[in-house]
Write a structure and sequence with these properties.
heterodimer, A: about 375 residues, alpha/beta, Rossmann fold, 12 helices, about 5% strand, elongated, B: about 450 residues, mainly alpha, about 0% strand, globular
């Protein structure tokens, strides 16, 4: 025993050498793994295609889609826009769609990913903005990202300065998954167009459970809130300047859509939040009119937003409903008319000159028929 | 800059060690090198406070020189120096607290004062004051400005200790870093540092969300019996693991540079009495308060009245040192009262089985930490009421495995310091394990914003 210990014993100098060497080797191996596997598709591809999504955090994966050049049209928004299926949108608007809507995305994050896409797409075709409360948040400029983190470092044109930000266990883990994927051991997490059915399978739908999650519908405020014109003017909607900048991004067509959350998630009628929301919609409408962009408001009390059967919870509609919403959106954009049944309202009148609203592509779509 | 950040681990520490050892043969140069690195380390947080730190160093050194030139007669100079340093601390740390209380007493609305606390000010101010007190009481020598500055600035312990005395560290500046045993010091220091890193990142930081949510929620609704105990125990272990980890990292870095810093923790939660607890918890603060407050006030040798007064003042100040809030003062006074009971108990040679003595001490400490951690007495009251079980023994214990591991690390076996200093022998397995632990931590801390150390706020 003693002799064995003696054989295993080394000098302190040797100990330091082993610590140093082992650390260097381990660090180099981890770095090589990240470099070769390219977990977020942001580095120059070495062995594997960068067009595979393996991470669950969309903020880290979607820049690769935005840069890929595979698409000319996108949807941005939060989880309320994620179920808009690219193929369904292509049937309506033409082009090649990617869905870059991200769970809980702040307006700034949506703006950044759309800008990145526009910068890396030769002829950006359709921008569909799914508007949620985040665009009307008075703190949108000070609270730009969520606690999920946002990789601003991926948004410049130098991939190599991304690398120091990737020295973490998450990158190593995704790199491992990426290699397993390349070896055929596990599938892509989601398709490279960003579309994912993140709600449970339709077969698991339970109306009682949904109603429990939807909760009560707010009744009208007993004391109606009356905002003065001066008070309304002072309300801040800092994200709307980003929205306006986005619309200037060289798109052939832009469509703004206010997403249909259940009435239980809409503001209490006649309350201050309802007044703020109305003011926000009015300001979005004003900028949509300036840009000649259709603004379609589904966030109203309607057959769509009052029927519990349409929703998993107060924010997320079901997959078949998503298909209906895409069709409705197509009709709204084609006619610039409110829905006679009251499902949507078009808050911006058609432009007198159809230059911005016109589809500039030769690709066939429902709208160009 | 946090010890557990990649910037520190991959750039600052290797660069400091490399340049320190490159300059090892040039005494003055290497000391300036360390001063420069220490200033960069400090400025990383907030460069606005570097002039304050340097100002305190310079003014204190000039006062010391003037005092010595007076043939150690002009003690008023030291009084001015100590008062000036304590005034800085008072302003930054306690002005808002004092103003709020004065206004409250006057029946006026509390002013909203927001003063940014310079990081580490409580620690380095205490060290400067101790030197001035030692000039007056113990004939401390004059040091060159460079050495006095390095004594205050030495970065491993600049922010949160261990609180070092001038005579413990300044003579070590003469030692050649390349003297015999350099690789042993590098190895032991590096290994101790790594153990501290692991404790901080994998235990203390993982307990933090549970602690934060428990005490935040308690401000709204009373937690269940189990949830309150879970939160209280989680904080008990988080505080120890966080602060002892910092101390181990500080001692480890200093050792890699060739300096020996005093031990700061010695398994405090195994204590069987409160006096033992204070001999094992934040040992450098305990001895500081003993030497510069408790004994000068008379300690235990000047009669019962002086003893009680000395204990209450010392522990009240101990509480206040931790933060400008009445909960901290209450925590300190509570421990002061406990220490007195402990003393009278021992003096009467009353006996308690060791398991019961441990349980009583631990319970007292946990209850104290609840008061210490709570943002106000209302939250402390809610937590302690829930923990008492008066509302029933309900709820589920949160994160039981994590708390169990934290408890085991805090209570069982040798301390990290003992593991490294007494039991570590140079062998390949330990070396590879250390390197692997360091690499894993490096990739762990790269995932997000590193969590600061609890004691940085004090």
């Amino acid at each position: 025993m003693g002799a064995r210990n003696k054989r295993r014993s080394i000098s302190w100098r040797h100990y330091c050498g082993v610590v140093g060497a082992a650390m260097v080797v381990e660090l180099l191996l981890a770095c090589a793994l990240i470099l070769v596997a390219n977990p977020y598709g942001n580095l120059p591809p070495l062995l594997f295609s960068s067009h595979v999504i393996m991470d669950t955090n969309q903020r880290f994966q979607y820049p690769a889609i935005a840069r890929s050049g595979r698409y000319d049209s996108i949807v941005i928004g939060t989880s309320t826009s994620r179920l808009l299926r690219p193929a369904a949108l292509e049937r309506i608007f033409g082009g090649r769609f990617a869905n870059l809507a991200m769970n809980s995305a702040r307006a700034w994050e949506q703006y950044r990913i759309a800008t990145l896409f526009a910068e890396h797409t030769v002829h950006p075709r359709t921008l569909l903005v799914g508007i949620d409360v985040v665009w009307c948040d008075e703190n949108a400029d000070t609270q730009r990202i969520t606690e999920r983190g946002f990789p601003e470092w991926m948004f410049d044109e130098d991939p190599w300065n991304d690398f120091p930000h990737m020295l973490n266990k998450r990158s190593v883990e995704i790199a491992g998954r990426r290699i397993a994927n390349a070896l055929g051991l596990n599938p892509d997490r989601i398709p490279f167009d960003g579309y994912e059915v993140f709600v449970p399978d339709e077969s698991q739908y339970d109306l009682a459970k949904a109603r429990e999650l939807i909760g009560p519908v707010p009744t009208a405020s007993p004391k109606p809130y009356a905002a003065t014109p001066e008070g309304r003017r002072k309300w801040r909607f800092p994200a709307l300047k980003w929205l306006e900048t986005l619309l200037d991004g060289g798109w052939q067509r832009a469509v703004i859509m206010i997403m249909p959350v259940h009435v239980a998630a809409q503001p209490q009628p006649h309350s201050k939040s309802a007044a703020r929301e109305a003011e926000c919609k009015a300001r979005i409408a004003a900028l949509a009119i300036r840009r000649g962009v259709p603004l379609v408001d589904f966030r109203i009390k309607s057959d769509l937003t009052t029927r519990d059967e349409n929703y998993w919870d107060k924010l997320h509609y079901r997959v078949p409903v998503a298909e209906r919403i895409v069709r409705d959106l197509g009709r709204a954009v084609a006619t610039w008319q409110d829905d006679p049944a009251g499902t949507w309202r078009v808050l911006s009148p058609p432009p007198t000159l159809p230059s911005i609203g016109a589809v500039g592509s030769t690709q066939r779509s429902d709208l160009s028929r | 800059m946090l010890f557990q950040s990649q910037a520190f681990l991959l750039a600052f520490l290797p660069a400091t060690l490399a340049i320190w050892y490159a300059a090892a043969s040039y005494g003055g140069v290497r000391e300036w090198v360390l001063i420069a690195f220490s200033l960069v380390f400090y400025a990383w947080w907030d460069p606005r406070f570097v002039p304050l730190l340097l100002g305190q160093i310079l003014v204190s050194w000039v006062i010391a020189v003037l005092y010595l030139r007076s043939g150690r007669t002009a003690k008023w100079l030291l009084v001015v120096g100590i008062a000036a340093n304590l005034s800085v601390l008072l302003f930054f740390k306690y002005a808002a607290f004092l103003a709020g209380n004065v206004m409250l007493l006057a029946g006026l609305k509390s002013p909203t004062m927001s003063i940014v606390l310079p990081i580490g000010i409580s620690f380095y101010t205490f060290e400067i004051v101790s030197y001035m007190a030692d000039l007056a009481w113990h004939g401390a020598p004059r040091y060159p400005l460079r050495r006095f500055a390095l004594f205050v600035l030495l970065f491993p312990r600049l922010i949160a200790g261990p609180i070092v005395r001038h005579h413990e560290i300044i003579p070590q500046f003469d030692l050649d870093p390349l003297r015999e045993g350099v690789f042993q010091r590098l190895a032991l220091g590096g290994t101790l540092f790594t153990i501290g890193l692991v404790k901080k990142v994998f235990l203390a930081d993982r307990l933090a969300p549970l602690v934060d949510s428990t005490f935040t929620d308690a401000a709204q609704t009373a937690p269940t019996f189990a949830a309150a105990w879970g939160g209280a125990l989680a904080f008990t272990f988080q505080l120890f693991l966080d602060f002892s980890a910092y101390s181990e990292m500080a001692i480890g870095i200093a050792l890699m540079l060739g300096f020996t810093l005093p031990q700061n923790f010695n398994a405090p939660y195994i204590s069987q009495s409160l006096r033992e607890f204070w001999r094992r918890w934040h040992m450098t603060l305990s001895r500081y308060l003993r030497d510069y407050v408790y004994i000068p006030l008379g300690g235990s040798r000047e009669g019962l009245g002086r003893y009680v007064a000395a204990t209450i003042v010392t522990m009240g100040l101990c509480g206040l040192w931790h933060g400008a809030g009445w909960t901290f003062v209450a925590w300190g006074l509570m421990h002061g009262a406990g220490l007195m009971v402990n003393r009278f108990w021992s003096a009467r040679e009353l006996w308690l089985p060791s398991s019961l003595a441990w349980a009583t001490t631990f319970l007292f400490v946990v209850v104290g930490w609840v008061v210490f951690r709570s943002p106000g007495f209302d939250v402390a009251g809610t937590m302690l009421h829930s923990m008492s079980g008066l509302d029933g023994l309900h709820g589920s214990f949160p994160r039981p495995k994590l708390i169990l591991v934290a408890a085991a690390v805090s209570l069982l076996g040798p301390t990290s310091y003992e593991v490294v200093m007494q039991y570590l022998t140079p062998n390949r397995a330990a070396a590879v394990l250390t390197a692997t632990a360091m690499t894993v931590v490096l990739f762990e801390v790269g995932a997000g914003q590193p969590q600061s150390f609890i004691y940085f706020q004090f």
